[in-house]
């Protein structure tokens, strides 16, 4: 089967968020908050356990008052902020403005790093004539992250959950990506790291290729595996 389109997840597939400690330090600096080093380490550990960093570790437990918003957090920008600042507030921090500063920090391009093989994989697919879309469960516009890291020119379309009001694994989001590329889902592959959310593309007939959600330095070439079975769209029968 000829592959004419590739749909990619964002976090854990093409990009990885910074560490919880780096994220916290950026917010502390932004708000002019100084705390002892041992407190920084403790706050970071507690925030990670709370699952407060979007794109980071999931919460060990979601508080009852956040359960409903947590389930639909990626359908709306305000719900996304409420869910993650709510989780962060489970950790008593020294200044109240830190919670919003933390949320704002994770949306900055500097908080994200592309996986080492992401530019190569996207560039090679583009060379082969394969059209590319980013399909993400997210509550904010990630396009500036791609632009800042020089990858926006390799992406043809974005299907972001908060812009469509649906989140993966709902087939509607994958269909929106395929429609934006002008492709039938049967001609596309979905590449992601979430076995539940990203595998939802299979309901439309997309192939699904899963990668492990790992730190950048432990994920050097997972995306290169996507390239092996894909023929040139321009030359394939």
Provide keyphrases for this structure.
Rossmann fold, alpha/beta, ATP-binding, 237 residues, 5-stranded parallel sheet, globular, two-stranded antiparallel ribbon
Descriptive notes:
It comes from Streptomyces rhizosphaericus. One of its GO terms (molecular function) is ATP binding. This is HAD-IA family hydrolase. The chain has 237 residues and is of the alpha/beta class. The protein folds into 2 domains: 5-16 and 112-227, Rossmann fold (3-Layer(aba) Sandwich), CATH 3.40.50; 17-110, no CATH class. It is built from 10 helices and 7 strands. The chain has helices at residues 20-30, 37-50, 67-71, 77-88, 98-106, 118-127, 143-148, 161-164, 171-181, 224-227, and strands at residues 5-8, 15-17, 112-114, 131-136, 157-160, 188-192, 207-210. The strands form 2 sheets. A 5-stranded parallel sheet has the order 5-4-1-6-7, sandwiched between helices. It has a two-stranded antiparallel ribbon with strand order 2-3. Helix 7 links the parallel strand 4 (131-136) and strand 5 (157-160). Helix 1 (20-30) crosses helix 5 (98-106). It starts with a strand and ends in a 10-residue tail after the last helix. Residues 230-237 have low confidence and may be disordered.
């Amino acid at each position: 089967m000829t592959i004419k389109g590739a749909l990619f997840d964002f976090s854990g597939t093409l990009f990885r968020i910074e560490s919880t400690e780096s994220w916290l330090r950026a917010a502390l600096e932004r708000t002019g908050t100084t705390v002892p080093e041992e407190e920084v380490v403790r706050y970071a550990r507690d925030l990670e356990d709370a699952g407060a960093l979007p794109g980071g570790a999931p919460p060990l437990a979601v508080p009852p008052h956040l359960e409903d918003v947590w389930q639909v957090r990626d359908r709306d920008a305000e719900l996304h902020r409420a869910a993650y600042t709510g989780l962060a507030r489970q950790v008593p921090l020294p200044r109240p403005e830190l919670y919003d500063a933390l949320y704002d920090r994770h949306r900055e391009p500097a908080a994200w790093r592309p996986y080492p093989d992401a530019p190569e994989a996207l560039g090679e697919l583009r060379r082969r004539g394969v059209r590319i879309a980013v399909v993400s469960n997210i509550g904010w516009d990630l396009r500036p992250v791609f632009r800042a890291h020089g990858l926006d020119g390799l992406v043809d379309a974005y299907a972001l959950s908060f812009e469509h009001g649906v989140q993966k694994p709902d087939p509607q989001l994958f269909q929106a990506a395929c429609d934006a590329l002008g492709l039938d889902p049967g001609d596309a592959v979905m590449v992601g790291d979430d076995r539940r959310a990203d595998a939802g593309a299979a309901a439309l007939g997309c192939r699904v290729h899963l990668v492990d959600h790992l730190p950048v330095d432990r994920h050097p070439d997972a995306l290169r595996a996507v390239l092996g079975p894909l023929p040139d769209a321009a030359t394939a029968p």
